[in-house]
Design brief:
globular
């Protein structure tokens, strides 16, 4: 049985740690190396690092920066941003990155995920689906790429099924409209993902409290809860403070997930 995970998500822009709202207005937070050290001390389950400009600007991953982050991290690390080739994947895995996240590249080349899974193992391939809730109309959601600049014809649930069938080892549903708002996860979509994809699912976008994580676990059971603002801000004035739930609190949240899905943690 897959254990639930609580995952800090760090956004990089020009090598600096930033936080966005609805994928816009990046706010400088600090040095990502220092953030990783703090999450090490707080024994985070794993960490996700996403370069928000790499794909939209056609820039390859900053391997030097990623190598430093991977060397510093004591927890499993997932990196995404600018990855388009098997060679880039292998280089990241060789430097200690446990998971590699792809999004637009996997849409442009439907064979990419399968090739990556063959090269590095399915467990190392994460497919990120950035989507926006659409007002009215028949289609409730729409997938976007290139930092939410380019709409696609895909529905997130349909695309998730394609990615899973292609060999992805994990799916991350990332809500554009909830990014940085701290008003709660998209529970409506989460409820629709309870069908067995056969792989772990992670939700990102909207968490503003540990209660929001608990609400997600009640809907989805054993899954991943990722968050950015929740773990870099504190209080209504959004003061910068790297934080993470204590071991006891985290265990309680795990037990919530176990109760609603069943199985041993």
């Amino acid at each position: 049985m897959i254990r639930p995970r609580i995952i800090p998500c760090l956004l990089l822009q020009g090598g600096a740690l930033v936080k966005t709202r609805q994928f816009k207005s990046p706010q400088y937070i600090g040095d990502p190396i220092n953030a990783v050290r703090i999450f090490n001390e707080k024994q985070a389950d794993e960490i996700m690092v996403l370069d928000i400009d790499a794909t939209s600007n056609g820039i390859a991953p900053d391997f030097s920066k990623i190598a430093k982050l991977a060397a510093e991290s004591n927890m499993p690390m997932c990196y995404g941003g600018g990855i388009r080739t098997i060679e880039q994947l292998q280089r990241l895995v060789d430097m200690g990155v446990e998971k590699v996240a792809v999004s637009s590249a996997a849409i442009d080349d439907p064979t990419l995920i399968g090739k990556m899974a063959t090269a590095a193992g399915r467990q190392s391939v994460v497919a990120v689906i950035d989507y926006r809730e659409q007002p009215g109309g028949r289609n409730r959601y729409q997938v976007y790429t290139h930092n939410a600049a380019q709409p696609t014809r895909y529905d997130p649930l349909e695309l998730a099924r394609q990615f899973a069938d292609s060999g992805a080892g994990e799916i991350v549903f990332n809500s554009i409209s909830r990014d940085g708002e701290m008003t709660g996860y998209d529970l409506e979509l989460a409820e629709q993902t309870t069908a067995d994809y056969g792989i772990p699912l992670t939700f990102l976008g909207g968490a503003g409290s540990l209660q929001h994580i608990e609400e997600l676990f009640k809907v989805t059971g054993l899954t991943g809860a990722a968050a950015g603002s929740l773990f870099v801000f504190k209080g209504k004035f959004r003061a910068v403070l790297i934080n993470y739930p204590s071991g006891i609190t985290k265990r309680q949240l795990w037990q919530t997930a176990q109760h609603y899905r069943g199985g041993a943690l």
